[in-house]
Write a structure and sequence with these properties.
Blueprint lengths: L7 E9 L2 E9 L26 E7 L6 E13 L2 E12 L2 H20 L4 E13 L7 E12 L2 H15 L2 E8 L2 H29 L5 E10 L29 E14 L6
Antiparallel strand pairs: 1-2, 2-3, 4-10, 5-7, 5-8, 6-7, 9-10
């Protein structure tokens, strides 16, 4: 049986700067047409290349655009306009049921008084019950429940705290201050505009330093700090409050609100330097 040698195709590529040169060379095999059958291409192959010819194609590859990451922030001190007070009713007793009754009664009276004050939000939180064992002392139960009070009226809330300490024997667990959601959102809106402008200015400076004519904005994120500055916690001792308690002195202070903008600046074609 006579053999058939298929055409050989060689492809070469040379990269010249931003131009890619592709060379395709097709050469006929060394076969004797008189003694071998003609080469028949497979169906659908299309027109065969002109054997023994060379084709050169130039492909323009665009230069990549540099991308830099720019970050800018804007901050402001905002007055804390919300006050949170935590008080607890706590009783130690050898009889767990008796201790619980005392705590429950104190908390019910305290909650009723707190709800009667305009502008004060009140709700109970944790409730704990556990046995205490100490050397040379009888076993006893400690029952405790916490009352959370929150208000924008610092005077009214501090007066209520003193009243509950003296009248109901509640213990002050802590005071903290924060910015209300309304005031925080207003500050964040103004700071967002400042942070974006600062980001644009910084991106323009960076583009010029890199020798670019201008820049385009890529992917950008905007973040805020959704927490207030930690405030000292004032803890009461483990004894009942005195019958007459001086008003609590409070100063809300401020919290820092920050908006941060971070994103991509896509530099336009670099100028020749």
């Amino acid at each position: 049986m006579a053999s058939v040698r298929a055409p050989r195709v060689r492809i070469g590529a040379v990269a010249l700067g931003v131009v890619l040169v592709v060379v395709v060379t097709a050469a006929n095999g060394q076969s004797n047409p008189a003694s071998q059958p003609s080469y028949v291409p497979p169906p659908g192959y299309g027109t065969q290349p002109n054997l023994g010819t060379q084709t050169t194609t130039l492909i323009q590859v665009p230069a990549p655009q540099p991308v830099i990451t720019v970050t800018a922030s804007a901050s402001r001190e905002v007055a804390n306009d919300r006050m949170l007070a935590l008080l607890r009713a706590e009783v130690d007793n050898a009889d767990a049921a008796q201790a619980a009754n005392i705590v429950n009664a104190r908390m019910a009276r305290a909650l009723s008084q707190a709800k009667a004050v305009n502008g004060v939000e009140a709700h109970t939180t944790g409730y704990s019950s556990y046995q205490i064992s100490e050397q040379n002392r009888p076993l006893r139960w400690r029952i405790s429940q916490t009352l959370a009070l929150e208000s924008s009226d610092f005077v009214a809330l501090s007066s209520l705290v003193s009243k509950l300490q003296g009248g109901e024997g509640l213990l002050l667990s802590g005071l903290s201050f924060t910015v209300s959601p309304t005031a925080r959102h207003a500050a964040e809106d103004a700071l967002t505009v400042q942070a974006i402008r600062s980001w644009q200015q910084r991106a323009q400076i960076a583009a010029q330093a890199f020798g670019a004519g201008d820049f385009r904005t890529g992917r950008v994120t905007i973040q805020t700090n959704d927490y207030g500055r930690p405030q000292p916690m004032y803890k009461a001792g483990g004894v009942a409050a005195a019958a007459s308690v001086a008003p609590v002195s409070v100063e809300g202070g401020t919290s820092e609100v920050t908006v941060t903008v971070s994103g991509e600046a896509i530099l336009d074609t670099l100028r020749a330097r």
